[in-house]
Structure formats: structure tokens, C-alpha cells
Amino acid sequence: MDALLGALSIFLLRLVDVPLSTIRVVMMVRGQRRVAAVLAFFEALVWIVAISQVFARVDSPLNMFAFAAGFASGTALGMALEAWFAPGQVLIRAIVREGADALVRRLREEGYGVTVVHGEGREGEVPILFIVVPRRRAEKVLAIIREEAPRAFVTVEGVQRAIGGHLPSVGFFPLVRK
Length: 178
What we know:
The chain is an alpha+beta fold.
């Protein structure tokens, strides 16, 4: 019974420290140094406790299995949390040949800031829409674009920092806002 409880505790510890690592890396990439440092501290602390339990019974294949299974499960959990948490903003750029006016109107009605620039494509002038939104709302904006302008050429990229303009507030995790 003690062996099972030990393995379960190792598994659960890994289920905590690996998602912390995933979120820490996201915070580092987004330039959130303080948040990343705090997460790194707790990640290391939990990892040390887990690995010390493995080394305390290095002859136990069950502990090694629990460590590896916790790592795999923690990776999946970390990815799910990161997708749900979705910090930061993205820039959605849409080159719209047909239906641009209706798309711009709809996006603005739904509260999104849209900047329209006129560019020149292979077949002449085209409107280029720039929309910066919280990453959590990107799928909603993409769905609107697909509805209003299904043939639009769309790119999405991460934004390191956005200041000013018309940015809808997410109100989810104030520590990561700049």
C-alpha cells in the first residue's frame, strides 16, 4: 500500500510541476518576467520533491513509471491549461477581395477594433484588415471572417505588446496584462 501511495504522490507532483513549466515558458515568451520567475520557483520546488521520492526508492519501477506517466499527463494538462488560459493578444490580418465592407461593419458592431489599409494585390486594389484581439477571442473573430468573407486570405500572429487603440478587455488574469 505504501508503494502505491508513494507512486501516486510522484504522479500528482509531476501533474503539478509540468503544467507550471508550460505556463512559465508562455510567460517568458510574452515577456512576463516576474510571473515566469514565480512559476519557476514553484516548478523547481515541486520537481525536487518528486525526484527525491523517486531516488528514495530507486529500486522501484512503479515510482519510475509514475514519474514518467506524471510527466506525460502533466504535458497534456499544461497544453490544455495554456489553451484555456490563452494569455496575450494576436494580430489577425485579413486580405478581403469580396465582402470587406460587411465584414468591417460586423466586426465593429461586435466590439472589435478594425483598421483598414488599402493594398495592391495581383488583381488590383484590396482592403487589408488589421484586428488585434485577446487570443481567447481569436476563434470568434475568425468565425466571423469565415461567415462574412469566406475567400479572405487570413494570417494570425502573436503580438508581444499592444498599447492604445481599441482593445477589448478580457478581464481574466490581470497579472499578465501590460
